[in-house]
Amino acid sequence: MTLCRDITGAFMKYRLPAADDRQILKEYVEEHYANGERSISASLGLTGTDYDAWVEKVNRNSKESDDDWGRYYLYLAFDDSDRLIGLLHIRFDLSCALREEYGDIGYGVRPAERRKGYATEMLRYALDVCREKDMRYAVLGCYENNIGSNKTIINNGGVLFRQDTEKKALSEHWEIELKRNYYKIGFDGREGQA
């Protein structure tokens, strides 16, 4: 399990799903359904698959590549009180075509926890993972009318590079450059960010 502070200073925890997470994921999905949502972002087919098979696939693909998505991490994101906040899907081994269509990162936050900065922090964590994988940039996509996701991407340095119509909705494609924070010492002895 990885611990990171969110924007409020509280810790967020990230880990792969386990067999005993069935109930918390059931409640997570039910909250989306109660909010009128039928699609669960970043879930990689959670609702349409046998739960145990889903857990096994997600854990296996964190270690080895599959023909569809390559290697990836699908993390459960928890707050410091161990409440499941969202799902974070980091795809760092995609084909060029899938990268352009789906992007390198997907995330979703449960309805009751939206507009609290969690998505921004989850994306920030995902970008750090992408840097660790030596990626130079990350591609993300979302629908134009998803204002919260657009703001999350912009808050993490996203630059819009393409818009297209997909399934009668305008889809936006964003790119985030993954700079490493290097420091140099100038001739005057002062440190500064390169």
Please name the defining characteristics of this protein.
three-stranded antiparallel β-sheet; 194 residues; five-stranded antiparallel β-sheet; single chain; alpha+beta; Aminopeptidase; 5 helices
What does this structure look like?
There is one protein chain. This protein is globular. The chain has one domain: Gcn5-related N-acetyltransferase (GNAT) (Aminopeptidase, 3-Layer(aba) Sandwich), CATH 3.40.630. With 194 residues, the protein is of the alpha+beta class. It is built from five helices and ten strands; from the N terminus they run ββααββαβαβαββββ. It starts with a strand and ends with a strand.
Which secondary structure elements does this structure contain, and how are they paired or packed?
Blueprint: E1 2-5, E2 11-15, H1 22-34, H2 51-61, E3 72-78, E4 84-91, H3 96-102, E5 105-109, H4 118-132, E6 137-143, H5 147-155, E7 159-166, E8 169-177, E9 183-185, E10 191-193
Antiparallel strand pairs: 1-2, 2-3, 3-4, 4-5, 6-8, 7-8, 9-10
